[in-house]
């Protein structure tokens, strides 16, 4: 029996790229919900969710993403967790989270990635899982390292989560933590730390050979590279305006080819 899953598309707002990916997943019967940082104008066939910042702050769910410190407001990561918790969205076997700076000109690669993941039963599938002793690999982690919250003196781990998958059992474990402590902490620390310290199975998909053909450039936290290769593979990060421009060009080219046939 196939696993039942939902995909959460995390974005600042539902832009051209997000809407295209949302439509593609819908067309391929892949349940997905757009979670937006900012309020947006509703449009037909767009299953998108936005919550007022204060609701998330009042629930003390606004620390799940480190970016709230820089932007002084909850992000789509915070609002995705808030949405799952308040909607009691616990009927899925797995939960995919995809940030809007992951790009691939071939949208089918997202479906291929999800289909390939079905053979892995791990509770947390993400990338670049490291112990705290290697937190100096990325400047972004170093900035957070001083403020790590770990109430039980647990061993600390880091992971890079612009594309990740959580099992139902593991996501309930995260909410059990919240119910006990009334807060979350930065997901790039919390996810691997809670998973590994509580015996959940983890997988670093960058180390899985069967997925290599689906992945292009995969840069870590705080990194940026405008000269990424393999844009017909899943790549990260890509600036949103460049994604829109690149996707608009490829869509226009595709339309021109169709008209000329």
Backbone CA Rg: 18 Å
Number of helices: 9
> Largest beta sheet: what is the strand line-up?
3-2-1-4-6-5-7
CATH class: Alpha Beta
Count the E strands: 9
Classify the beta-strand content into a percent band. Answer: 15-25%
Secondary-structure class: alpha/beta
What is the CATH fold-level name? Spore Coat Polysaccharide Biosynthesis Protein SpsA, Chain A
Shape: globular
Which second-level CATH architecture applies? Alpha-Beta Complex
Low-confidence stretches: 251-261
Keywords:
9 helices; Spore Coat Polysaccharide Biosynthesis Protein SpsA, Chain A; two-stranded parallel ribbon; 9 strands; 261 residues; single chain; alpha/beta; globular; disordered C terminus
Folded structure, characterized:
By secondary structure, the protein is α/β, with parallel strands linked by helices. It has a single domain, classed as Spore Coat Polysaccharide Biosynthesis Protein SpsA, Chain A, CATH 3.90.550. It is built from nine helices and nine strands. It has helices spanning 16-27, 53-58, 67-71, 76-87, 108-117, 139-145, 168-181, 187-197, 240-260; strands spanning 5-11, 32-36, 48-49, 94-99, 124-131, 157-167, 202-204, 215-218, 234-236. Strand 1, helix 1 (16-27) and strand 2 form a beta-alpha-beta unit. The longest helix has 21 residues, at 240-260. The termini are far apart.
């Amino acid at each position: 029996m196939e696993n039942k899953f939902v995909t959460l598309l995390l974005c600042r707002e539902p832009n051209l790229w997000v809407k295209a990916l949302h439509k593609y997943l819908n067309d391929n019967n892949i349940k997905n919900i757009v979670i937006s940082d900012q309020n947006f104008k509703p449009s037909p066939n767009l299953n998108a969710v936005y919550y007022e910042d204060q609701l998330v702050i009042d629930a003390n769910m606004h620390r799940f993403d480190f970016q709230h410190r820089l932007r002084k407001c909850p992000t789509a990561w915070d609002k995705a967790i808030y949405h799952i918790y308040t909607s009691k969205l616990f009927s899925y076997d797995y939960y995919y989270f995809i940030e809007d700076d992951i790009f691939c000109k071939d949208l089918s690669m997202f479906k291929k990635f999800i289909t390939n993941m079905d053979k892995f039963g791990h509770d947390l599938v993400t990338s670049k899982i490291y112990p705290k002793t290697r937190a100096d690999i990325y400047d972004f982690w170093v900035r957070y390292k001083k403020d790590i919250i770990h109430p039980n003196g647990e061993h600390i781990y880091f992971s890079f989560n612009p594309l990740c998958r959580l099992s139902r059992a593991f996501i309930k474990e995260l909410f059990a933590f919240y119910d006990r402590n009334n807060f979350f902490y930065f997901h790039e620390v919390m996810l691997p730390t809670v998973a590994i310290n509580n015996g959940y199975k983890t997988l670093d998909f960058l180390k899985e050979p069967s997925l290599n053909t689906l992945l292009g450039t995969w840069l870590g936290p705080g990194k940026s590279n405008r000269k990424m290769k393999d844009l017909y593979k899943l790549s990260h990060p890509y600036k949103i305006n460049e994604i829109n421009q690149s996707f608009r060009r490829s869509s226009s080219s595709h339309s021109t080819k169709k008209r000329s046939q």
